[in-house]
Write the structure tokens for this entry.
Amino acid sequence: MKFKVLAFLSLLFFAACTGTQTDTDYKVVAPKTPKEAVPNSEIPIGYPEEKSHNTEQYDLIVENDFHSAINKPLSTFGIDVDNASYSNTRRFLTSGQMPPRDAVRIEEFINYFNYDYEQPDGEHPFKVATEIADCPWNTDHRLVHIGLKAKEVPMTKVPPSNLVFLIDVSGSMDQPNKLPLLKQALKMLIKEIRDQDRIAMVVYAGASGVVLESMPGTKRRVMRNALAELQVGGSTNGAAGIAQAYGIAQKNFIEGGNNRVILATDGDFNVGVSSDAELVQIIERERKKGIFLSVLGFGTGNLKDAKMEKIADNGNGNYFYIDNPDEARKVLVDEITKTIFTLAKDVKLQVEFNPAQVKEYRLIGYENRVLNDEDFNNDEKDSGDIGAGHTVTALYEVIPAGSESTMTSSVDDLKYQDRKIKNSAGDDPDLMTIKIRYKHPDSDTSIPFELTTRDTGKDLAEASENFKFSAAVAGFGMLLRDSKYKGGATYDNIEALAIQGKGKDEKGYREEFIRLIDLARSFQSDSDIKAEK
């Protein structure tokens, strides 16, 4: 009964605190509370952790193991262009502490950075590049680098967008690095939209409400005003807000356009539907109607990383963590077409290793994107999406056939069948075959294609900057996770490798990564340093 009374009072409070602002025939309704938001100018670059009351949540990551190429020749996974894990880890390091082990998702570290891959020039919307060289942390092994480059699409060529901002204004957002930073970030996005695009805003706390009806990009001043008036108050009924935001997106649906809900929150849903499974069901249902979802995570102390990743992954969208204004600019200005315009959906990769060339292999990262082998041909199975201009990179650590090295346990001989390699495999120089399936954004039928790659014996010194830098990032992730597969990786040797692979680095992201290596190294204990030596 107490809960029902509180919920009823919060609804009354929300209704009583609503004000109205108009501009021509467009209506803006903005909730107000007695609390004043912190000015944007007071937003710090790094944020100290709230050690006294930390309820951040991360899903357990069980690292991919090595597999025998003869016993399990297929490796199947969906691509991932999320990069929240990297910026979230940066937040921990710049605030003076190491990140939780399960906050580190290595594929998101690798895919935070762009790589210099060739533009697609064929019938498919992306092009695949491969490279094989020495594995930096285990010289007896080889490292396979697979890169996808999506077609660049200038903003002038992107179809009209129907965007609905779903903004968390609950009490948990009352911190400088939450609602004030959120407003600063969305203000950047509003500046980038075009006249033909449309934007609406929905807020949620104890109740949800429309603060800006969908309107064209010509009304930027009205949009900014609505954003500026948002203030915090109440508990977090995220599910109600999600339902209302999708309803507005459906009402203003643009055929052939980019229809997307952008959820901005710390993920702390605590009223109404809040279980991950129930939220995912809502998102999946709307995804099938052609409305995609992107998630912008904010804040520290109660970040619900696991929940936000799940709903983004199941909403044909992506998940970013905004830790400072520079990251907001990267996601919502510099890379806006990647963020809001899906070029291909449900992109899956299936790698078949030639057991005559490969003894064992391990996919580095992508633990929560691994699929069953039969899922590859199943068009009902959802997978990752790729935006215009995105690069996607995956790495495999491979033990060559004939090597004395092994990372797997022995298995008894089978009683009813033999594991044998075809005679033709021994004559085939290919290391592996890479199969890919993807769908166009408005289609439910996948398109397959494949290519093969072979090991030419390249050593690490001959490898490209793409290869060296991605390997350094993977090594850094393994060190942060204290991975059992980190081998000979140290902060010193991965820093040297990152410097070799730094390249042009026009935006300075790779230089910042090198500084993060130095920060992480400074947190090492004396025993860790002695162990490395």
User: Anything to note?
Assistant: Residues 491 and 518 are 8 Å apart (CA to CA). The longest strand covers residues 138-150. The two ends are 63 Å apart (CA to CA). The chain has two domains: 17-43+159-340, 69-153+343-405+424-532.
